[in-house]
Structure of Lon protease:
Amino acid sequence: MIARDDDFPEIVPIFPLRDQVVFPYMVFPLFVGIEAMPVVEEAMGGNQVIGLFYCARGGETCRLENLAPVGTACRITQVFRLPEGGAKVMVEGLKRVRLGRAVQRVPFVIAQVEPLEETVERSLVSEALVQSVNAMLKIALSHGRPLPGDVMQMVDRIEDPGRLADLITVYLSVPPAVQQRVLEALHPLERLKDVYLLLSSEVQKQQVRGEIQTEVSKRIGKTQKEFLLREQMKQIQEELGDDDPRQGELGEFRRRIEKAGMPEPIRKIAEKELQRLERINAASPEYTVSRTYIEYLCAVPWSHGTEDQLDINRAQEILDEDHFDLKDVKDRILEYLAVRSLRKQSKGPILCFVGPPGVGKTSLGRSIARALGRKFIRIALGGMKDEAEIRGHRRTYIGALPGRIIQEICRAEANNPVFMLDEVDKIGQDFRGDPASALLEVLDPEQNNSFNDHYLDVAFDLSKVMFITTANILDPVPSALRDRMETIRLPGYSEEEKEQIAFRYLIPKQIEENGLIDYPVDFEAQAVQRIIGDYTREAGVRHLERQIAAVCRKLAREITQGRTPRVRVNADLVAELLGPRKFFAEVAGEQDRVGVATGLAWTETGGDILFVEASQMPGKKELTLTGSLGEVMQESARTALSFVRAHAREFGIDSGVFETCDLHIHVPAGSIPKDGPSAGVTIALAVISLLTGRPARRQVALTGELTLTGRILPIGGVKEKVLAAHRAGARIVLLPERNRAHVEELSEQVRKEMALRFVSSMEEVVETALLPASVRFRRGDLSDSYPPAAGPHA
């Protein structure tokens, strides 16, 4: 029904509500932002009446079309201005109103409203419904949903069904859309029925929540009751002498402890932990921690190991079958087997394979395990920074586990595996500890018979394990750790050795992996030599295998495309499939030059050649060193210059030249760091060549550490450096006299093709490496080709 009230305004400002619905006869605060203050000011300037309508849709601004059709006209009673802008407005609900035609839309809505008259109905039905709602409200309050005391007094005094429905709806936890539905219900009884249904639903929800809480409480009580009953049952069984723990999970643990073969002290610890586990409630977090600890104690192979196969002849056949050459490594393994056959209780050796990538360090560990008949374990140490990876975590930490050493031994189920620790030179270090220091106990044969993992916290015997570590270079490895290992160097392969490896291992492997078994591909020797010489430049054979795989893949593609299979691979076919050659002999094709000497370097990827250039210019006796040289190499350059100045007359150098010129010594490939003392002889030769005008023979490569008195000291990496000179095309290598014994490591073929000369003084070097001064230096030919190096130690 439309109300007829002459005092009620027909046109009022409209204020949209987002999260609430306002009912008549209610007083509540309304917080208004700065942007909505014009609406409040418009109402205050008139009769202080404003229309509040619920807006269910729309973006930041609510349009007239999105407003609910029925709202509440309210009178503004107070306005409190806020310091940050906006205001707190106290409003009092007057009447339900229906939204009419808009009079103004911008900057805010002003519209016509029609008041809706509500009938007051008094009947037996209304009285019964009011009583039912009051009873249901008391039931809801009994389930823990309290109302303010003044509200309860109002509910008891209200007899009007419509006003009672409005009041209860305000305090029910229902969405604004449901409140709007109650607001739009004009008939009081219909409105109160709707509220009664909402109140019943709320009571049902509260009853379900109460039942869930009761059930949880019952279950907790049941768990505690079961715990007490178990304790009583144990006591009764002990009194009757009928205690049988071999039932259930705990009985299984006891059987595993008996079968694990633990040493007596460790068995007592396991049994004590099992007794503690029996007393812990199964729902307690401590139960899982204790249970996991016992599982690991039972999983460790305390006394279970594989039987060593001590047939030395069979082991030698396996090692020769899997790897070509590597005589020193194979001899050391056979020596170990011989000792084991004579003395069963010998400790496992700690071997360290040092060599460039691709020479077979990791695969050699698998072959050793196969030869011994042992389990093989490999752990990659590269980038490891946490000490707990080795020793494990304390059990006090959440998610604690044993270290990798114990974990892998548990997986292998043997206490004497071949354990390979790969890339020991690439271990990191940070705030979590130093894993290299944690390895000191693991890799010490005198200590590792009582290795203590932080998680197990008991001693485990690692002396039966054969540990093998690998590294590219030993410099980053701490000296204390180096001292515990027996170092075996695996130098790079010569071209003849690479050819043998390719035919014996690489080519059959790649033919099988690329699906060419049914197509008998035949590699000629010239084809393999072309790949080795023109497409690879490495100490190992990893890149060689990639190039062979590339040839096989291209042949497989031709076959799948229906072309005639080319099963015979010669040198010309290699050039066709792999494209232009990638590497050249840096020395063989170059001219002899003044002030340019060919040195040798030793890097973590094998040997390499190193050119040293010297130049002079007018100046004031300054020495310039470039090429990213380390401190040791810079000292070698200064030592070489001092030696040349002290013996200038012996080499036919005018000593006055040092007073009027600057010297510049440069080692190309300046972006690569270089360090080491063994470039002293090469630097001195380059300076003597420059100052005497005698070209240095490019096919002569040299290495050695030079002292101020002219002595040439021995150097390391002889085999790697000689092989690098051989790959680069040099035919004469000058080595320190005290390195004469080290050339026995070279193959007979390399010693036949290379002229190895041993020198003990700089005079011998000059006599061999420099041409006479009459041979003029051709300045027009300045093209040089320098090999890549990776952090060389000259």
Observations:
- Residues 248-299 form one domain.
- The radius of gyration is 46 Å.
